[in-house]
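Students often ask why inverse folding is considered easier than folding. One informal answer: many sequences map to the same fold, so there is more than one right answer. In these notes we will look at a single instance of the problem. The structure comes first.
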């Protein structure tokens, strides 16, 4: 394995530790290697927003080891930042420490960086190379790239279904179609999201908490509820998750209902769209403004269908149970179609067995923005 790939793989493994931790910042890892290319002098990954980025963590680690980083190489999974936000520019920290070379996977898509970090490094005499680990780094930060390039989060729609595609019985019962291992895996996907989204139908039918309980999590992702007529009960279980923001989007004003929900800590936003429904595209733009990179959707087939019809879904996360239910509620409300060509084409990603169930990732083509 080439030396650059070896150390970048180490940096990518560190970056993965920032999943569920660094929002809204990207997940970045950094490994500082001695000039001989054989010894790690320091390493780190991005901390929670407002705290140190990966490069600074690696420099601190090197200092704690008593290592001299002058002339060393930093392998980092994204371009070092070049702007003052809640922390200082990482490119300046690397220059001040005397690094001789920086190898980065990708240019940062943030307009406040976008090549400026590399430019400042080169201006200071630091050699810069890019490319190793680019695909893996981009996938790890697919939501951050989506928010920076498209102006809205990466939308991942999670579905648990029987092998014949039913998500619930005709009477609405759905607990539990898939097994315990699949449910725990689904919670791990919740934990990595910038926010979870559901619809009022799910709230009224199931009264779910929609929090992360079955996987480690640094913070509970905010919960987004699409509730056109402000029907969310103030006593709903979703309000029982401590320190978890609840953002409710409505299409129709109701001062009394809004006051009751705000008294429970909810933030209510009116975004009226066609047909008395919430403007879903505007909702995604608003979530981007709140720093949401990845949006994890767990909703009913009607809201799933609305998101899909408006071309707002990027990826499906589907758990298939080895059982048949016959008549029931499907995955998404689309159609009826008159021709097979009218169906939504998808591209399969990894398919893995999780306990007794299958986990299928499928992506809408053409989302390589």
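Output (designed amino acids):
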């Amino acid at each position: 394995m080439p030396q650059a790939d070896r150390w970048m793989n180490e940096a990518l493994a560190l970056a993965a530790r920032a999943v569920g931790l660094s929002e809204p910042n990207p997940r970045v890892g950094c490994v500082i290697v001695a000039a001989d290319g054989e010894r790690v002098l320091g390493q780190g990954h991005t901390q929670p927003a407002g705290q140190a980025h990966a490069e600074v963590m690696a420099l601190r680690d090197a200092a704690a080891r008593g290592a001299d980083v002058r002339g060393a190489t930093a392998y980092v999974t994204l371009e070092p930042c070049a702007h003052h936000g809640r922390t200082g520019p990482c490119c300046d920290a690397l220059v001040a420490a005397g690094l001789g070379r920086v190898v980065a996977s990708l240019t940062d898509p943030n307009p406040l960086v976008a090549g400026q970090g590399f430019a400042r490094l080169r201006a200071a005499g630091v050699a810069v190379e890019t490319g190793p680990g680019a695909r893996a780094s981009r996938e790890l930060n697919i939501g951050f790239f989506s928010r920076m390039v498209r102006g809205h989060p990466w939308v991942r729609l999670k579905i648990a279904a029987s092998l014949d595609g039913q998500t619930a019985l005709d009477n609405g019962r759905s607990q539990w179609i898939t097994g315990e291992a699949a449910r725990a895996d689904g919670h791990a996907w919740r934990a990595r999201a910038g926010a979870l989204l559901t619809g009022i139908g799910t709230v009224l039918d199931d009264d779910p908490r929609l929090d992360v309980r079955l996987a480690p999590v640094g913070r509970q992702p905010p919960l987004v509820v699409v509730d056109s007529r402000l029907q969310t009960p103030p006593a709903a279980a979703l309000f029982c998750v401590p320190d978890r923001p609840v953002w409710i989007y409505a299409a129709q004003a109701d001062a009394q209902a809004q006051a009751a929900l705000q008294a429970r800590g909810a933030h209510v936003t009116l975004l009226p769209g066609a047909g008395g429904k919430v403007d879903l595209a505007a909702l995604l733009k608003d979530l981007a403004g709140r720093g949401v990179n990845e949006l994890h959707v767990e909703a009913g087939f009607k809201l799933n269908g609305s998101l899909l019809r408006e071309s707002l879904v990027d990826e499906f996360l589907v758990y298939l149970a080895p059982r048949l239910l016959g008549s029931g509620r499907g995955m998404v409300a689309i159609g009826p179609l008159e021709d097979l060509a009218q169906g939504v084409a998808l591209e399969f990603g990894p398919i893995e067995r999780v306990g007794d169930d299958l986990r299928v990732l499928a992506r809408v083509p053409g989302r390589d923005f």
